[in-house]
Specification:
Number of domains: 2
Largest sheet: 2 strands, antiparallel
Order of helices and strands: EEHH
Number of strands: 2
Shape: elongated
């Protein structure tokens, strides 16, 4: 093949001498389409399209990792609530000590208090997500006991 010449055509069209092979799994479906076109001047071009669709195995969920992630997020929410609450108390103290800028400190106190409530709500949400992930793990392992009475 080293002896063959590579011809260039006008308008960026060229002919590929070798096609790249497509690796296909056993469970995959392949479709190939080749289109031949002419510009009316005796120049021909080909366009090839290959579509491959493969079956994807559904991964089993890692319940322990999910539970650890929710626990981590719960701790971050708690930390955020404590930090925002401490900042709100700090701003309340500054409002009392600095009457000239008391209005600014009151606004910052209220914003920090709202952030603390939001972070606490997020921690609460993640706590319930963690419990739900633990229950799903027990149910998947068959440990779930349904109490009827």
């Amino acid at each position: 093949m080293a002896e063959e010449k590579h011809h260039h055509h006008f308008f960026g069209h060229h002919h590929k001498d070798e096609e790249t092979p497509v690796d296909v799994d056993v469970d995959a479906v392949a479709f190939s389409d080749t289109r031949y076109t002419s510009d009316g001047m005796g120049n021909y071009t080909t366009d090839s399209t290959t579509v491959v669709a493969a079956a994807v195995e559904e991964a089993t969920p890692d319940y322990e990792k999910e539970e650890r992630t929710h626990k981590h997020h719960e701790r971050l929410g708690e930390l955020g609530a404590v930090a925002a609450g401490a900042f709100a108390l700090h701003e309340k103290h500054k409002a009392e000590k600095d009457p000239e800028h008391a209005h600014k400190h009151k606004l910052e106190e209220e914003i920090a208090a709202a952030a603390a409530v939001g972070a606490g709500g997020y921690a609460f949400h993640e706590h319930h997500e963690k419990k739900e992930a633990k229950a799903e793990e027990e149910e998947a392992e068959g440990k779930k006991h349904h109490h009827l009475f």
